[in-house]
């Protein structure tokens, strides 16, 4: 056993060297940046699924101004009432205005797209900006831990930086997602809370600004309100006997948070009729429609995953072991108790209350990504606070195991994206081959990979034969000589987030086109999808 401990000590000593940890951070960051550049080169940048909706929303603001909330449409001369608009639930929300015209807005937070619409960069760089923000969150984590814990050296903070970098939150960093800036703002806010608890001096104006950015995070990711709310409730509990001290310490942080919430809630109410935006209305509808069985299924999938996504238990079992061991073997300080309480309570609330299956490619745990950052903070505080060398050795070992497991999962995630990019490039080149030919989709499932082709030429959906007949009349009247059809050639999988009715009406709707005015010229199959070219007779 002594020999075993000896090798464990050597193993940990090697990975706790500052130069080794810095090398790992630089190496991992370099690989991520390199892969992002590769994915965004070629015919089209790799933007798929939800990310492409946020891109279209950004372009709409860029072209028509920050008050233009309508769904992006390259050519509305054929479809003025959004009857053939390809994007439906959960991406778009349709309503009828006071004069009877149909309107369409995307459900994602407007502030994210409005901000990016102001940047002087081409949209091909948006993915890279999100990744760089993720790396910046990692830096904020490292130096904030050093500051609030008074670390004389950076080793443990760097170790936890690597721990965070290969966590499942990286899934959002691989996409054009508002999650990363939300986590940046929320992490700054949370570190301010910890700094106040540890009696660090923060100027009042700075606390106000930090509270303000904490409020912004709520309007980027709705689960932020749970993290902030649980933090507030836990703080009230810990200061239950000194409530005036609580008010004095957190006053300016709270005022900044409240001002931010009121300001952006007023904007959302005036623009969308909902204080938390369109997404909150859709989420509430989806929350109320779920029964106990469906909710239990979502919770089960979160923890054990499914055929497409890894679950929390398999991604984070070293972290779970860390938590269990610390609970039974560690004497907690007040700050450890507080961080542990916030981490566990917020995690449980989000998992139980979320009305959706956890999206996010290979690692499907998107709604709890900030929980992984809280786990990182708790791990660092616990390691630094532990005086018993043997216990600290075990804690470090759990962290290293999580890092190696994280590397394995990040590698699998990257390989999945490499595969998607390969066929994404083929699809986009085929669509670009006939730039004047609009694209018809027979199902909303076909929309996951249209990427920036939607910015280059019109795309419409015809989910049954009668709808197609209406569309071909419009195409003929406009003198459009040919069009493409892009369709998944098998039965699409049913997403847990949609109802059976929606699945039958908009997803499982493939049919063989019968045309009066056009004839099929090409019909090719690529990796499960079918791409056809039709030309006027």
From TrEMBL:
Name of the protein in its database record: Glycosyltransferase RgtA/B/C/D-like domain-containing protein
Source organism superkingdom: Bacteria
Organism for this UniProt entry: Leptospira levettii
Record bears the keyword Repeat: no
Sequence intervals crossing the membrane: 20-39, 125-149, 156-174, 180-198, 205-220, 226-243, 250-267, 310-328, 340-358, 393-410
InterPro entries assigned to the protein according to its UniProt record, in alphabetical order: LA3751_2-like
Keyword annotations: Membrane, Transmembrane, Transmembrane helix
């Amino acid at each position: 056993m002594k020999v075993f401990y000896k090798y464990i000590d050597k193993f940990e000593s090697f990975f706790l060297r500052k130069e080794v940890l810095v090398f790992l951070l630089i190496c991992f960051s370099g690989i991520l940046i390199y892969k992002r550049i590769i994915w965004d080169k070629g015919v089209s940048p790799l933007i798929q699924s939800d990310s492409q909706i946020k891109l279209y929303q950004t372009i709409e603001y860029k072209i028509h101004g920050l008050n233009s909330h309508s769904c992006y449409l390259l050519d509305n001369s054929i479809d003025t009432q959004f009857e053939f608009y390809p994007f439906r639930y959960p991406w778009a929300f349709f309503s009828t205005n006071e004069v009877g015209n149909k309107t369409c807005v995307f459900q994602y937070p407007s502030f994210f797209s409005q901000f990016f619409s102001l940047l002087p960069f081409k949209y091909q760089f948006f993915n890279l900006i999100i990744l760089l923000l993720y790396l910046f969150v990692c830096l904020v984590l490292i130096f904030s831990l050093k500051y609030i814990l008074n670390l004389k050296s950076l080793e443990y903070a760097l170790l936890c930086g690597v721990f965070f970098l290969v966590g499942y939150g990286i899934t959002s960093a691989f996409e054009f997602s508002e999650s990363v800036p939300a986590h940046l703002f929320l992490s700054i806010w949370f570190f301010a809370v910890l700094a106040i608890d540890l009696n660090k001096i923060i100027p009042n104006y700075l606390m106000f600004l930090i509270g303000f950015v904490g409020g912004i995070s709520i309007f980027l990711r709705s689960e932020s309100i749970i993290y902030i709310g649980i933090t507030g409730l836990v703080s009230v509990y810990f200061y239950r006997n000194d409530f005036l001290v609580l008010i004095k310490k957190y006053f300016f942080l709270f005022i900044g948070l409240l001002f931010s919430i009121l300001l952006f809630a007023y904007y959302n109410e005036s623009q969308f009729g909902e204080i938390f935006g369109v997404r909150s209305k859709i989420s509430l509808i989806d929350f109320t429609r779920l029964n106990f069985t469906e909710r239990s299924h979502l919770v089960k999938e979160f923890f054990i995953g499914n055929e497409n996504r890894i679950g929390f238990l398999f991604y984070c079992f070293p972290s779970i072991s860390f938590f269990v061991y610390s609970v039974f073997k560690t004497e907690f300080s007040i700050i450890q108790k507080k961080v542990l309480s916030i981490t566990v309570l917020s995690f449980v609330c989000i998992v139980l209350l979320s009305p959706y299956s956890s999206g996010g490619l290979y690692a499907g745990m998107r709604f709890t990504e900030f929980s992984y950052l809280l786990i990182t903070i708790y791990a660092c505080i616990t390691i630094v606070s532990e005086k018993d060398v043997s216990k600290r050795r075990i804690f470090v070992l759990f962290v290293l195991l999580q890092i190696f497991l994280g590397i394995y999962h990040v590698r699998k995630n990257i390989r999945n994206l490499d595969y998607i990019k390969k066929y994404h490039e083929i699809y986009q080149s085929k669509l670009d081959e006939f730039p004047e030919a609009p694209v018809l989709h027979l199902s909303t499932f076909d929309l996951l990979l249209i990427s920036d082709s939607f910015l280059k030429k019109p795309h419409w959906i015809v989910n049954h034969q009668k709808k197609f007949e209406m569309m071909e009349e419009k195409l003929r009247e406009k003198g459009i000589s040919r069009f493409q059809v892009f369709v998944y050639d098998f039965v699409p999988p049913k997403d847990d987030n949609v109802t059976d009715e929606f699945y039958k009406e908009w997803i499982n709707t493939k049919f063989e086109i019968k045309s009066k005015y056009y004839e099929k010229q090409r019909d090719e199959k690529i990796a499960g999808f079918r791409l056809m070219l039709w030309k006027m007779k």
